[in-house]
């Protein structure tokens, strides 16, 4: 059994979800620009999938942000761990604007 850092596991999952959301967003934009190319069902499905995907990403990032903040308290004086957690937090905060706009 391998021990993987949970941050990198979640980061990978979020990255996959972001890639999926980008594809859904591209299709959703195409559908809105030329609605005659799709059925109402496809437009509704794409809209719902995109919305659900973005909510899921937002929740994952909020959970990760909360976990990082909790972990940073007991490791405050340890510079190496604090530096690592700060780096993780920077990645989380970097991703928020892409899913909340």
TrEMBL record:
InterPro entries: SNARE, Syntaxin-6/10/61_N
Domain (Syntaxin 6/10/61 N-terminal): residue spans on this chain: 5-71
GO BP field: Golgi vesicle transport; protein transport
Coiled-coil regions listed: none
UniProt-listed SUPFAM superfamilies: t-snare proteins
Subcellular location: Golgi apparatus, trans-Golgi network membrane
Membrane topology designation: Single-pass type IV membrane protein
Keywords (A to Z) from UniProt: Golgi apparatus, Membrane, Protein transport, Transmembrane, Transmembrane helix, Transport
Pfam family membership, one: STX6_10_61_N
Chief location bin: Golgi
Cellular component, GO annotation: Golgi apparatus; membrane
Family: Belongs to the syntaxin family.
Protein name, as recorded: Syntaxin 6
Organism this protein belongs to: Pipistrellus kuhlii
């Amino acid at each position: 059994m391998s021990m993987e850092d949970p941050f990198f596991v979640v980061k990978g999952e979020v990255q996959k979800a972001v890639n999926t959301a980008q594809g859904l967003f591209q299709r959703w934009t195409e559908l809105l620009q030329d609605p005659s190319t799709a059925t109402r069902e496809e437009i509704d499905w794409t809209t719902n999938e995109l919305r659900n995907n973005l909510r899921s990403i937002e929740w994952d990032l909020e959970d990760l942000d909360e976990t990082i903040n909790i972990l940073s308290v007991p490791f405050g004086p340890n510079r190496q761990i604090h530096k690592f957690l700060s780096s993780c937090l920077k990645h989380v905060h970097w991703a928020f604007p892409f899913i909340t706009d």
